Amino acid sequence: MKNKPQGDFFADYDNEDTALVINKGVEQPPIINPYVKSFYKKKPSLLTVEQYMEGITAGDTTILSQAITLVESSLAEHRAMARKLIERCQIISAKQRSMRIGITGVPGAGKSTFIEAFGSFLTSKGYKLAVLAIDPSSERSKGSILGDKTRMETLCNDPNAFIRPSPSAGSLGGVARKTRETILLCEAAGFDVIFIETVGVGQSETAVHSMSDFFLLLMLSGAGDELQGIKRGIMEMADLIAITKADGTNVDKANMARALYTNALHLFPPTESGWVPTAVTSSAVTKEGLPGILQKIEEYFTLVKENGYYFKKRREQARFWMYESINESLKNMFYENPVIEKLLPEYEEAVLEGDIESFTAATELIEKYKYTK
What we know:
There is one protein chain. By secondary structure, the chain is of the alpha/beta class. β2 (129-135), α5 (153-156) and β3 (161-167) form a beta-alpha-beta unit. It has helices spanning 49-57, 61-72, 76-96, 111-124, 153-156, 179-188, 206-209, 232-237, 251-265, 290-306, 309-335, 338-353, 358-370, and strands at 99-105, 129-135, 161-167, 193-197, 214-220, 240-244, 278-281. The chain has 2 domains: 95-306, P-loop containing nucleotide triphosphate hydrolases (Rossmann fold), CATH 3.40.50.300; 321-370, no CATH class. It has a 7-stranded parallel sheet, with helices on both faces. α1 (49-57) runs parallel beside α3, α2 crosses α3 (76-96) and α2 (61-72) runs antiparallel to α6 (179-188).
């Protein structure tokens, strides 16, 4: 066999000097999806505040979602832009006079199923609905499934509805850290009904009560003592109790539970709003009771707007969230301080080793922070 240059190793192997035959390779077929490269485009840069506002006020849900992501960001540069955006949206929100409805309930009450059925009923009546669904975050991985949209298929395809799942991220009250700011953005986008779905009944439901106008409590009948396992504080905050799954063989149990809850509500002192809470039954399957719930909600808003309680409560909420914003800003300033960032791991290690007590470590860190610029 003749010597061949290394670069021509496979060249002319079909000659008579060798018995080795190398077949030519087959032609490679095209990739399955010719557009796959377009999925890996460079990540778009942030929009300006003006661009966000134009998209939000035009009802562009894509821009609205991006704006909510910006507001939820913990990066310092994002917070500065989000603050300007929220200030702009708050001016529009103040004129919107939307209906903010907090929805909570016991586990298994069917919150997501109820929201889809009731939300579709609202949009059929001409309302524009935004659903802020809060998913619990894992204590181990800190992640959330954010699967509420998969359980609201009909509402997801409704052009008059917008669903935004957010992680609770350890926040108390079963609501996400930036839920109130998200409400302002949704109102600026023209949504006149805002659902705030909480994680579930807990001991800090005052958080959702402090950002909603109407508090709807979903309860389940036929699960033992209907008055067992429900906190009095939650009952006192409820403007309406809806007994869900009142269909089939469960109708009689639901009516019995409704009577029990109605009697229990009468034992509480009169509400400041002048509204008398009551209990109703409903079914997401048969749609029974949904018109009655909407009627109760509309009656409530008519009452509180006439007697001025609606505006008084909004002002009190604004004051509450002023203090909440101060607390959050102080916390961010503390943890982002360069001196604290350097000392915190050392103190943490000392606490873990038992060399210093937790409260002493916290006190010393705060004292060091006070004397830093």
